[in-house]
Amino acid sequence: MKLTNILFNKKIKESAEKIDFNKASQIITNTTINKLMNQKLLFMRYSIFAIIIIIEILLASTLSGWVVSSPIFALMEWLVILLTIIYFFKIISKCFSEHYLTRFYSCCSIIFSIVSCIFSLGLWFVLAAFSSGIKEEYLDQILLQTIITVVVAILVGYAIYKYLQYLAIKELADFDETLKVPLWGRVVDKSVIYGIVIVIGGMQVYRMNKFWLLNDSSWVSTLLVPIAQTVLGAIIIILLIALPVRFFYPEFVKSYLLQKYAEEFRKEHGMTEKEWYTE
Predict the structure, then answer these.
(1) pLDDT digits (tens, 9 = 90+) for 146-185
(2) Does any domain span residue 243?
(3) Per the domain annotation, does 238 fall within a domain?
(4) Structural domain harbouring 124
(5) How sure is the predictor about 222, in pLDDT bands with cuts at 50, 70 and 90?
(6) Total structural domains within the chain
């Protein structure tokens, strides 16, 4: 399972490999297997994929003459679309030979689509900065936009990777009680749980006091409002990253163990090879 090899660091991989079938079967019950074989996410994965592709096509179109004409830059964006389509269907094609991991591959394809969109947006901002030509008076602006875009894209991608890794460690802790779950991940989890309430509450407070705040020149509006906006903005960014990753987390550890002991689990739950692998 290449995806787990990418996500698992040495410590996680060693801990996962130590789990024998008896230990795995205590956690991976019939309910867990039915959940992993569930096809309820089929519509969701194709819907999200279609939305992502439409967004990427619109981005590529702006460089293909819709807004500016930059054939080379447009080709790069269209190449991203092509690779997204290829790898998306490559991931979900695994479901046809590993039916017992249907939900795993569906979740992986959804997260891949989201990451592809982030990369495509980052690339578009960089290419858009250079699409009108490099003029000396705009050079500083172009370089600043490029640096900010690259840094933000890398940070967002790294944040998704680390959060997925945290969720894998948290899942692995169900099998190994000696494993310590990172504190920062728990903080993010709490932020996800309470973040929606804070954002909605903050927006309502701002909406009800907007007229007063805009016409007030005291330290309340000049200092507290920008701080509150920054905090709310940070929470929204965390939610936008963490919510889809948390909701579509592919349960890497259980899926890894299920694949490792595929035949043992199939026989234990009395399924035929057709039901388990291809149906």
Answers:
(1) 888 888 888 888 888 888 889 988 998 888 888 888 888 8
(2) no
(3) no
(4) 2-14+32-179+248-272
(5) low
(6) 1
- pTM score, whole prediction: 0.83
The closest alpha carbon to 16, from 254, 264, 268, 178, belongs to 254
Q: Which amino acid is at 277?
A: Y
In a domain, 36, yes or no: yes
Rounded CA-CA distance 99/9 in Å is 27
Query: Does 207 reside within a domain?
Result: no
**What's the token pair of residue 172?**
């692995």
